[in-house]
Amino acid sequence: MPTSILIDTDPGIDDAVALALAAKLATLKIVAITTVHGNTDIERATRNARLVASIAGIDAPIIPGASSPLVREPRPARETHGPEGLGHVIPSQPAEHEIDGAAEAIIAQVRGHHKLTICCLGPLTNLATAIAFAPDIADALGPIFIMGGALGVPGTQTPTSEFNWWSDPEASDFVMHANLDLRIVPLDVTRRIAVPGNAIRALAKAGESDQQARFWADALRFYASFHEEYEHFDGCIVNDALAIALAANPSLAKWEEMRLDVSLSDDERRGAVRRSAAGGYATVAMTVQAHQVLALLEQRVFARWLPPGSLAEGAAGADRWLAAAALRAAAE
Ligand code: BDR
Ligand code: CA
User: Fold this and answer.
1) Which atom of ligand 1 is nearest to the CA of 14?
2) Residues with beta carbon < 5 A to ion ligand 2?
3) pTM for the whole thing?
4) Are 175 and 127 in contact (CB under 8 A)?
5) Any idea what the CATH number is for the domain that residue 174 is in?
6) Would you list the DSSP string of 130-173?
7) Which ligand is nearest to the CA of 8?
């Protein structure tokens, strides 16, 4: 029987890839998608989730969620995900006002599904709000896969902090201490899941005559320009796709239990995680079989346009980047 899963997301380019992957994994049954501020505003995130769902063939309900973090101002990542949240893709549907119903939807879905799996691909505002409204759902929930945090690699938002947890550190902190079965998928492992530049260029070529290939090429090449400009990396890291792959098959990673806390400071450490004896318990993905994950992504999402093995060089490129980043950190 497939695992019932609720996906909380802020699409977002890698969120879009993650949704498309989830749609194609027979071991997952998407029961609902909730949206959250993060990579873009809630109106665009929700509109984009609907667009990706229609492309990917997802017919689960899509429920708009929080438009801002628990206590801080929203800070959409337009330089990373583009003006509309999907890179160079300009959806024909305008983004419209949305009413937040995500926390209620999460509560209802948890009550309606025994040990529901949740996968959070954006800031944790919706999940924190749901638990705060209905603390009893904590016991009823299944595992919660969370793309967030950075332990030993550079952050995406500051040198120490990953974007999702930087966006709403109070929500991450609340979730960390809510006695949940947390499966954290930090940047340390997601950074290895790279779509190489060559594959994006091949998609763009295919996109000259195929609308869906053009959609992915337009989204991914924007993300790749960001990586090129800020990180000198040829390709793009599809962090969120890994959280979905691991929700479907946790054995693709090696996991370690630890206690973590989240910095609530206003400085560069905002949203940073560190091991701490007083922290909340979590099971954290420490290593990942990146080649298998990339092969899965290639077969399930991009096989119509890319020859087999097209994504394989992504992991090697990402590993070189990570090694160089580690050397730089050691020299500082
Ligand atoms: C995370 O932040 C966003 O840019 C991505 O969608 C991903 O969820 C990576 O730091
Ligand atoms: Ca995301």
Assistant:
1) 6
2) 10, 12, 15, 121-122, 240
3) 0.97
4) yes
5) 3.90.245.10
6) HHHH-TTHHHH---EEEE---SSS--SSSSS--HHHHH-HHHHH
7) 2
Average pLDDT over residues 23-51: 98
> What pLDDT score does 332 carry?
80
What contacts 294, CB < 8 A, 6 or more positions away? Answer: 193, 194, 311, 312, 314, 315
Q: Does 328 score more than 90 pLDDT?
A: no
For 242, the domain range is 3-331
Average pLDDT, the chain: 97
The structural domain count of the chain equals 1
Average pLDDT for 78-105: 97
CA distance 8 to 135: 18
Best substitution site from 14, 120, 157 to test ligand 1's pocket, by max atoms within 8 Å of Cβ?
Answer: 14
Average pLDDT over residues 107-120: 98
Question: Under DSSP, is residue 181 helix (H, G, I), strand (E, B) or coil?
Answer: coil
